[in-house]
Write a structure and sequence with these properties.
Elements lengths: L1 E7 L1 H4 L7 H13 L4 E3 L6 E3 L4 E4 L14 E2 L5 H4 L3 H7 L4 E5 L2 H7 L2 H18 L4 E5 L5 H5 L1 H21 L6 E3 L20 H19 L15
Parallel strand pairs: 1-2, 1-5, 1-6, 6-7, 7-8
Antiparallel strand pairs: 3-4
Amino acid sequence: MLRFMFVGDSMTIGSAGEHTWRQRMWRHLCDTLGPEDVAVVGPRTALYDQAAGGPLSHDYAGAAPAFPRHHLAGWGEGWLHMAPTIAGALERDPADVLLVSLGLIDLGFYTDAEQTAANVRAFVAAARTANPRIRMVLLPVIPNVRAETDAPFAAEVARFNELLAKAVADLDTGASPLLLASRPPAYDIHTDTYDGTHPNASGEHKLAAAFAAALAQAWAIGGPYATPVMTPTG
């Protein structure tokens, strides 16, 4: 059995009433590996309740009773917050593979590209203290509305994505391999998000597909992602 932990910010924790890309990815892994060979672990289970202003909801849309809601994701949290948290999370809930989507919130509110990249390296080192054989798939910062309208911010995103690729190349080892997932192809903030940043149903599928492709192509885990034909209600 492979144990997966989802690590991310608001796009990964999701809001009340959403499916989340975590649920889409879990279904893909169950379909391609078999449900008996997939576990999802992590110290948190809630969605973010935007009305209440906290991670207080368990109202997942369309969730099968078997869907494991565990994760390590937080609204407004980034590499800065997860680097000092990941070792403890892995000691509490051991995992084999981390699926990580972070960076936008760091660059938007906390750190520049270089500082954010340093926190990536700290995160990897901390994760390996808890599990020296941990595998990690890291997603670059994906298109977002601020990068379309704020040129300096867009430059920081581009710079960070370059530094992230370098960090993956530098830190990849045979014992603890790292993968850089590709940004979802044809990801359109006007059709794949509900506010220019947070994914809607089609965006969730594209995020899951990006991780699925990395796992299948590099490590032969799972297989091609079966993206459904989307309807207006997703």
